[in-house]
Structure formats: structure tokens, C-alpha cells
Amino acid sequence: MIEDQRGVASVRLMCRAYAVSVSGYYAWRNRGPSQRQQQDMRLLEKIRALQDTGRGLYGSDRIYKRLHAQGVVCSRKRIARLMRENGLNSRRRRKYRHHTTDSNHSNPVAPNLLARDFAADHANQKWVGDIIGIRTDEGWLYLAALLDTFSRMIVGWAMSIHRDEQLVEDALCMAIQRRCIGFDSDLLHHSDRGSQYTANDYQNLLTLYGIDVSMSRKGDPYDNAMMESFFSTLRAELTELVQFSTISEARLAVFDYLEVFYNRQRIHSSINYMTPLEFEAFHLL
Predict the structure, then answer these.
(1) Is 145 found in the same domain as 65?
(2) Which residues does residue 154 pair with via DSSP β-bridges, in sequence order?
(3) Quick one: angle between helices 200-208 and 165-178, nearest 10?
(4) CATH no. for residue 250?
């Protein structure tokens, strides 16, 4: 209280009023931070660094888990206290449930040939596909992707502000060209039963290349669990960490994630801690 009132009243008078010695006050004032305070300062630096990495979206729970993974020993309550005292509250965004499947149509649907069996003996045996919406300040950007269940590689993708048949067709054309799919392929294509995937032109393209068609049952995400898992990873590692200002910014970030990081640098425990590219190269030997 004396420190807070310095400049308002005489230190000597306040010490007398609060029955504190003047020498004791100055000794307290000149004393350096305690060991606990020094530890708090070092911990606060680590918290700030993680907050910067997470674009201010991290709360105390996630900060605690990240620090624990780095071998930093501290309690969750201590982190919460330091964040609260230093105004480091997370910038929580509203969770948007943006549905990308339009199953209200009269197009014919295929049976579920995949039957939740994602195992594959080689590349280009089973592809799974889906669409995800990425929110930006300018509106929604949609990503359609096709994943090879053998290596977890994203073999085809496309982005657009329109969630239509052309989006998924562009992703399929990329995959066919990249993987050099012939007209007599032994390939199974699995997706949901949305209008984009059941459209005539899309189905005709699959038929042209001899690709068998499989579709999930209505309202059952487990039928396409591997694709759901990929999109969960994309959200956790990119889209939930960043609030994109523009659609162009989101496009560049997603391209970098898919082509630079996910396919070529990110190791996967499910494929012996290799990248998709390494895993496929290994099995070509």
C-alpha cells in the first residue's frame, strides 16, 4: 500500500501510519525477485512463446499440455494464474458446424463396398474423398481431397469458393493424372452420398476409368473414418490455429500444408513413422 501511494504522501508518514519501519520498507523495495518469482518469469516467457505460435488461440489447458510435452514441470493452475495475471486469455472462436454434404437429391447412390475396410495392399487400390469448408474473413473456401488409404497420401485436391460438382471433379482429375490411372484400373473410390459425388458427370468420369464406386451410408461418418481423420488433422494443425483474412491467404496455406508438409514431411505412426512419399517409395523397391 505504501508503494502504491508513493508520490501522494510522504513515505515516512505512511510508514508511521502503518507501523512499518522506513528501513524495512526500503529493504523490501530494493530486494530482488524471489526464486519463485524468477521461475514464474521464465515460465511466463514460455507461455508467451506458445501463445504467439498459436496465434493467441491457446487456453491454459493446451498451454499446459504443450509445456508438459516439452518436459516443463508445472501445474495447470499455475499456468492459468500467470495467464490471467498477464492478460493472456485465449481468443476463442465460435465453433461453426458447416455441413458440406447435400444428400437431399434424387441421384442414384452406390452401395458401401468399402465396408470400413481401409487396408490396402498397394497404392491406387482404395481412394477416399470428401469436402471440408475453411472459414475466412471473406467467406468460405472449400477443399475437396482424395486420399490413398495405402500410404495416406493426398493424391488429388481442389479448392473453390463453390461447393459444387466441378470442385470434386477437379480433385479427381488431378488424382487420375498424378497417379497415371489407366482405363482399366482396379481402384475403389469411396465418398459420401452428397450431390457432388452422385452427379452424372462425376460418375461418368469414374466409369470411364473403370473405377468402382462405394458410398457411405447416410449420416454415418465412420464409413469414411480415414478421411474424417485427415480432416481432423488438417483442422488441428492448420485451420483451427489460424484465422484467415482472405481466401487467397487460405489457399496458399492449404497448398503449403498439403504439398510441402503433409505428403512430404509429416511422419505417420500408421505407416511406420514414414511420410506418405517415403512409404510409397519404400514399397516400390
Answers:
(1) no
(2) 147
(3) 10
(4) 3.30.420.10
Cα–Cα distance, 192 to 224 (Å, whole number)? 8
Q: Supply the pLDDT for residue 96.
A: 44
pTM exceeds cut of 0.90: no
In single-letter form, the type of residue at position 161 comes to: I
* Residue whose C-alpha cell reads 454434404 in the numeric block: 101
In terms of residue numbers, what domain contains 141? 126-284
145/37 same-domain check: no
Question: DSSP string covering 65-104, please?
Answer: HHHHHTT----HHHHHHHHHHTT----PPPPP--------
3-state class of 142 per DSSP? strand
Grouped pLDDT means (10 residues each) for the chain, 285 residues:
79 84 80 81 89 66 81 90 84 48 73 95 96 96 98 98 96 96 91 94 95 91 93 89 93 95 86 91 85
268 and 169 assigned to the same domain: yes
Radius of gyration of the chain (CA): 28
Q: How many domains does one find in the chain? A: 2
The helix/strand/coil state of 155 is: strand
Count of all residues that appear for the chain in the document: 285
Residue 95 pLDDT: 46
